[in-house]
Amino acid sequence: MRRLLQPDGSLVEGGCSRLGPEQLVEALRWMLLSRLVDARATALQRQGRFGTHSPVKGQEASVVGSAMALDPAVDWIAPSYRELPALVRHGYPLERILGRSMGRSPAATRIPDGVNVLPNQVALATQLQHAVGLAWGLRLQGRPGVVMAYFGEGAASEGDSHEAMNLAGVRRAPVVFLLMNNQWAISTSREVQSAGQFFRRAEGYGFAGVQVDGNDLLAVFEAATDAVARARAGEGPTLIECVTYRLSFHNTTDNPRRYLPPGWLERAECEDPIPRLEAHLAWLGLWDQGARAALEAEVAEEVEAAVQAALAMPPSRPEDLFDQVYALPPERVRRQRQELLQHVQEP
Ligand SMILES: Cc1ncc(C[n+]2csc(CCOP(=O)(O)OP(=O)(O)O)c2C)c(N)n1
Ligand SMILES: [Mg+2]
Asked: Whose CA is nearest to atom 23 of ligand 1?
C-alpha cells in the first residue's frame, strides 16, 4: 500500500510531496469544510430540516486528494453519494447541494450549466456505467477530459462494476475508478464482502491498479494525478483503491453501534486524515493554533452562509417530482401528476 505521509506528519523515507504549501492549505480547507458540513447537515436532519445525509467523515483525504487532481474546466466527476467536497471544488455551489437536501426547488438547486458533475447516484455502481460512456464519448469527440468515478467497496460487488471496468479496459476510456474502501457497506463488513484485494482486479481488465493509504492526502493526490495523466495521454483507465475508514454512521438512518466490533471506531479514529495533514503542515513549519483558528472561522462562515442561502431558496412544489424525469411524460405519468395535484389541493 502506497503511503507518503506518516501519522506523525513527517514524510516516509525518500517520500516527496507533489503539493506545495498553498495547495496543502487548500486541501485542509476542503477537508475542514466537509467535516463541518457533516456536523451541520446531521444537526439539521435531526431537526427535520434536512433529508438523509451520508457523511464523508474519515474519508476526506481520499475525496479531496483525488478531486484536486482534476481540472474542473475539462474533467468530469461521476459521484456516488459521499463526495461532497469534490463536487464543491469542481464548481457545484455548496448552497445548491444543501438546498437540494432541504427540499428547495429543483431550479434553484440544479447543477449549473458548465459544471462537469453528474447527479449523485444512490443505485450502487450504476454511475460507473455512466462514467465509462461519458469518458468514451469524450475520447471519440477528441476532447481532453477525464472522468473520475467514485464507488464503495460494497458497490464493487455489483455486476455493473465489472461490466463498466471491462468495457473501459477494452475501449481504453479516459476514466479513473476511485474505489473508496471504507471497510463497511452499511452493516456488511469488508471481510464478508469480497475475498480478494480490490485493486488487483484491474489487472484482469487490462489496466493499472494501485492501492493507497486513503487517509494520506499526499499519496492519494499522487496516485490520482498519475492516473489522470495516463488517461489524458490515451493510456486508458486506472483503478485506485483508497484504504480508509468510515468514522461516522452510514447515513442519518443508521446506528453503527449496533454492529461495529468493540474498539473498531477507536482504532480507526487514530487514522483520522485531518490531524495527520495538520501535523504535516506543522512539520513544515506552516501551522499553528492561530492559523487553524483563522481557517476554521473562515470555513464556518462559508458553511453558515450556504445554509442561509439554501433556506432562502423557494421550496420545491409537489409537481417537481414529475417534472424532472421525462421530457415528454407518458399518459400514465401525466395522470399521476394530476392526481397528486388534486390530492394536495384538497382542503
Ligand atoms: C443496487 C443497490 N443495492 C443496494 C442498495 C442499498 N445500499 C445503499 S448504500 C449501500 C452500501 C454501499 O456500501 P459501499 O459501496 O461500500 O459504499 P459506502 O456507503 O461505504 O460509501 C447499500 C447496500 C442500493 N442503494 N443500490
Ligand atoms: Mg463502503
From this structure: 185
Asked if residues 216 and 271 have their Cβ atoms less than 8 Å apart, the reply is no
Q: Which of 109, 69, 119 is nearest to 89 (CA)?
A: 69
Instruction: Look at residue 347 and tell me whether its pLDDT is greater than 80.
Output: no
Q: What is the pLDDT of residues 267-316, one digit of tens each?
A: 999 999 999 999 999 999 999 999 999 999 999 999 999 999 999 999 99
- Within the chain, which residue ranges are assigned CATH 3.40.50.970? 21-316
Q: How many residues are given for the chain? A: 347
For the chain, what percent of residues have pLDDT higher than 70? 100
CA 134/CA 131 separation, integer angstroms:
5
Q: Are 151 and 77 in contact (CB under 8 A)?
A: no
Is 89 known to be catalytic? Answer: no
pLDDT at 345: 85
Classify domain 21-316 by CATH number. Answer: 3.40.50.970
pLDDT exceeds cutoff 80 at 346: no
- Top mutation candidate among 59, 82, 153, 186 for ligand 1, by most atoms within 8 Å of CB: 186
Reply yes or no on whether 49 is catalytic: no
Question: Are the CB atoms for 329 and 322 separated by under 8 Å?
Answer: yes
pTM to 2 decimal places:
0.97
